[in-house]
Amino acid sequence: MTVETKDLEAAVEAILFASGEPVHIERICLALGVGRPEAEKALQRLGDACAFERRGVRVVRLEDAWQLCSAPEYAPCIRRALEMRKAPRLSPPALEVLSVIAYYQPVTRAYVDQVRGVDSAYTVGLLVDRGLIEECGRLQAPGRPRLYRTTQHFLRSFHLTSLEDLPPLPGAEEPPGAAPAPEEEGGGAP
User: Fold this and answer.
1) What angle do CA 54, 59, 64 make, to 5 degrees?
2) How far apart are CA 190 and CA 177, in angstroms?
3) Which residues, in sequence order, are bridge partners of residue 103?
4) What is the b/e burial string over 151-184, where b = at least 16 CB atoms within 10 angstroms of the residue's CB?
5) DSSP structure class, residue 106
6) Are strands 23-24 and 65-70 parallel, antiparallel or unpaired?
7) Cβ neighbour number for residue 93 with a 10 Å cutoff
8) Less Cβ around it within 10 Å: N or C end of the chain?
């Protein structure tokens, strides 16, 4: 099914609304029978229209996926309407663990412990429970320790499009993610 240009934004909006989760750009292209540039233009026009018209929703890009989310300025109204409590803040140790994982992913918990100098087992479990990090394989080393990385929920929560949007580490010569990371099935240091 190919969607006509005038209906493309509406079709994209319907897909994102119905999904409720991030939808990969390739899936949108296949569903609408259009190329990536055309789909991205429609997504950008929809996002611009939502922001310009101060609608209650925003179109958010998360790497190669897109999602329809509520506008952040209406969070207090949404919270009151749905009788939700404010999301619990992350403690300084949790932010520390999350930072190590975000900048050096994929990493093992032992690597996080080494960087921090304290046991991080509880905090890693908390971040997994909150959906901010996830297991992404095992290191080919004795004991086959789990590797962790950040999730799309992490990107959304911190208003990032991709990990490249992370601010540079103080005193670091290389941008985040430039350090060689251990391979999922290969041997690595962490």
Assistant:
1) 160
2) 14
3) none
4) bbebbbbeebeebeebeeeeeeeeebeeeebbee
5) S
6) antiparallel
7) 14
8) N
